[in-house]
Amino acid sequence: MDPGRRLVVAVARRLLLGAALVVACSRPAPLGGTELGAQPAPEFTLTDALTNKPLALSSLRGSVVALAFLYTHCPDTCPLTAEHFREAQRALGPDAARVHFVAVSVDPVNDTLESVRAFTADHRLSANWHYLIGDRSQLEIVWALYGIGAFVNGTVLVSHNDAIYLLDAQGRERVLVHADTAQDDLDNDLRLLLRETPK
């Protein structure tokens, strides 16, 4: 099977699994987003563009994680997600130190060390912020694991879904939200996950 077909099949399987989990969870969720059933988040390691060092998702265990898929030249949903993250850092106050905000690139060509640092400065993101990059083959594996379809649409624009996964301190997928989620809902979901996390 060629790599492109493998990616499509993996994305389809992931989306079907996510749909099955949502259907299976019939009780009202205490969280504001879509409850995901607490399955372990798939592991991966990519380069953190802000430190230029490898970062494994599992190294963030013990903290709540907000995981999004962005690109630095995005004109709409990615800046909105970045603003959500910055506002959450502010709203959580001292508890923000127990949350890691992670972006995985969907644009391996244009998400460079320089563009990531500029994006970070533009959105005033600070501590516990990670922007992970890699080559296309590395990133496609992660996109497939999380059901992210990313397709280049022109030289800079990328079409992709705006999923934001909230992981608990045990590294489990707990909630799925999106760029258009209300800020208060995101903040409250993070607080609820933090209440489960020993200080």
Structural class call reads alpha+beta
Task: Report Rg.
Answer: 16 Å
CA(first)-CA(last) distance: 47 Å
Oligomer: single chain
Provide a count of the helices: 5
Shape: globular
CATH superfamily, by name, is: Glutaredoxin
- How many domain modules? 1
- Main β-sheet: number of strands, strand sense, barrel status? 8 strands, mixed
What's the mean pLDDT score?
81
How many extended strands? 10
* Top CATH class: Alpha Beta
Provide a short characterization of the protein structure.
The protein has 199 residues and is α+β, with helices and mostly antiparallel strands.
Give the helices and strands, then pairings.
Blueprint: H1 3-24, E1 34-40, E2 45-48, E3 53-56, E4 64-70, H2 77-92, E5 99-105, H3 113-122, E6 129-133, H4 136-145, E7 150-152, E8 158-160, E9 164-167, E10 172-177, H5 183-195
Parallel strand pairs: 4-5, 5-6
Antiparallel strand pairs: 1-10, 2-3, 2-6, 4-9, 7-8, 9-10
Explain the overall architecture.
It is a single chain. This protein has helices at 3-24, 77-92, 113-122, 136-145, 183-195; strands spanning 34-40, 45-48, 53-56, 64-70, 99-105, 129-133, 150-152, 158-160, 164-167, 172-177. It has an eight-stranded mixed β-sheet, sandwiched between helices. Helix 1 (3-24) runs parallel beside helix 4 (136-145) and helix 2 (77-92) packs across helix 5. It is α+β, with helices and mostly antiparallel strands. Residues 1-13 and 15-30 have low confidence and may be disordered.
